[in-house]
């Protein structure tokens, strides 16, 4: 391949390869791929490529490599950190995996599914359910996010406490490397100690080392009994105490353990039609517990009553409601799932997707909240999220009456303030959303030295020309 392929020459070659429908260049056609859904970044690109299979992805990458043109892989474009959209340079192409949406195989004996990168997470869940299996990854964006995207970001979500992150659900990958070579690592083995675990390099790499085109995923037996509880609790320590109680009685039954501040529930009740406080009295701290079992005759009601009874006696739980029906369970989950939307409707908010050891979650919530209020008086902390994983969305809502843009102008101060507490508690500045563009400038401070140096050398070895998703993850 000549190293002299010009941008125009490249587009002509790509059009020959993919056909006119596979190469979008009109401004209105490519606009949705250039902006992230949070509205943090507005990028530019020469084109959006829509290959239909792995061979086409490989050919696109080979051509772009020859022309030295950067490639931004994109799935559902739901990145929380600007990881899937191009920078402002304008010399890149976006490579959309949307057309690679086939489920290649489901094996209910091996309990595996091989899905292409563009398969929507919800479609993967549905396909697993059709085979009487469970693909457990679940989160708010599951109707849009794709398998390639959740692996590239190592997404977590609501069920991590039971089933692990995307990484733990992955057995094998097919990847197009930055030189266009295809690595077929779609093995479906539970044990495979054969040198470096290459597949894990690409999980969480956010497309900076290659393009995930397909994955073999773990499936599970589907739950046949389920119950959801919503409780008001005395404080953050009480929330943790209740988690420990459930864990002690039946760890395997906990499918999700979520914390929500009272203010967060207030926002959901205020802004989301159909959502109301599910308890007689409002409280400052609440939890949602999702219990599930593969046994149809599992008595989750009794489990809930036993643990809640003890927790109420100990003064940890103030009040509780048990779903009791599928509709009620969904209604309780909605209070939690609508948190991001309710916060958006309430005004400007700054997101902090952070994690600490589970034991430190109460301290994180208390100290980070107080520090942010001290930084900007009137700031309204709305921490919520995956307490069972130590992953709290330590979000801050603008003070009432303050100009939203003025609040957002302080975003970095707020993030620094939260991160200072996170660091003191041995946590991480990025739990499940990734680094993208938003957090690249934090990498040096948090991962600098031997760790970042090793990452940079891996990047240089696999992608010496730096064409894979430049400007993301690494500073
Ligand atoms: C969730 O748990 C998502 O709902 C979004 O991770 C978190 O909006 C957020 O901060
Ligand atoms: Zn989350």
TrEMBL record:
It comes from the Bacteria. It holds the Pfam family FAD_binding_4. InterPro entries: FAD-bd_oxidored_4_C (IPR004113), FAD-bd_PCMH (IPR016166), FAD-bd_PCMH-like_sf (IPR036318), FAD-bd_PCMH_sub1 (IPR016167), FAD-bd_PCMH_sub2 (IPR016169), FAD-linked_Oxase-like_C (IPR016164), FAD-oxidored/transferase_4 (IPR051264), Oxid_FAD_bind_N (IPR006094). Residues 41-222 form the FAD-binding PCMH-type domain. Keywords: FAD, Flavoprotein. Belongs to the FAD-binding oxidoreductase/transferase type 4 family. This is FAD-binding oxidoreductase. It comes from Neoroseomonas terrae.
């Amino acid at each position: 391949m000549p190293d002299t392929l010009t941008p125009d020459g490249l587009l002509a070659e790509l059009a020959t390869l993919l056909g006119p429908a596979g190469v979008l260049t009109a401004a209105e056609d490519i606009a949705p791929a250039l902006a992230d859904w949070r509205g943090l970044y507005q990028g530019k690109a020469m084109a959006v490529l829509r290959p239909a299979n792995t061979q086409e992805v490989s050919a696109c990458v080979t051509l772009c490599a020859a022309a030295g043109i950067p490639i931004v892989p994109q799935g559902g474009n739901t990145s929380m950190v600007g990881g899937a959209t191009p920078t402002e340079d304008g010399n890149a192409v976006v490579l959309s995996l949307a057309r690679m949406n086939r489920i290649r195989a489901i094996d209910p004996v091996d309990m595996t599914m091989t899905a292409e990168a563009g398969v929507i997470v919800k479609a993967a869940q549905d396909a697993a359910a059709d085979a009487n299996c469970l693909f457990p990854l679940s989160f708010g964006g599951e109707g849009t996010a794709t398998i390639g995207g959740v692996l590239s970001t190592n997404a977590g979500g609501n069920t991590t406490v039971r089933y692990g992150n995307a990484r733990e659900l992955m057995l094998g990958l097919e990847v197009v490397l930055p030189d266009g070579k295809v690595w077929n690592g779609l093995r479906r083995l539970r044990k495979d100690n054969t040198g470096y675990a290459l597949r894990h390099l690409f999980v969480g790499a956010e497309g900076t080392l290659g393009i995930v085109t397909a994955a073999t995923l773990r499936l599970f037996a589907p739950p046949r009994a389920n119950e959801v509880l919503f409780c008001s609790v005395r404080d953050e320590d009480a929330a943790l105490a209740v988690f420990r109680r459930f864990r002690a009685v039946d760890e395997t039954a906990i499918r999700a353990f979520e914390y929500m501040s009272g203010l967060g529930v207030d926002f959901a009740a205020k802004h989301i039609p159909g959502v109301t406080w599910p308890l007689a009295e409002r409280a400052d701290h609440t939890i949602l517990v999702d219990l599930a079992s593969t046994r149809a005759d599992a008595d989750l009601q009794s489990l809930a009553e036993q643990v809640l009874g003890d927790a109420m006696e100990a003064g940890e739980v103030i009040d509780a409601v048990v779903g009791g029906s599928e509709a009620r369970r969904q209604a309780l989950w909605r209070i939690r799932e609508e948190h991001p939307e309710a916060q958006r409707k309430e005004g400007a908010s700054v997101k902090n997707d952070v994690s600490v050891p589970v034991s430190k979650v109460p301290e994180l919530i208390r100290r980070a909240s107080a520090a942010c209020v001290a930084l900007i008086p009137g700031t309204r902390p709305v921490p919520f999220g995956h307490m069972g994983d130590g992953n709290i969305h330590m979000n801050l809502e603008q003070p009432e009456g303050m100009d939203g843009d003025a609040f957002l102008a302080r975003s970095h101060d707020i993030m620094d303030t939260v991160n200072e507490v996170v660091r003191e508690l041995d946590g991480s500045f990025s739990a499940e959303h990734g680094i993208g563009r938003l957090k690249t400038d934090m990498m040096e401070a948090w991962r600098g030295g031997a760790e970042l140096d090793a990452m940079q050398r891996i990047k240089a070895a696999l992608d010496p020309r730096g064409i894979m998703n430049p400007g993301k993850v690494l500073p």
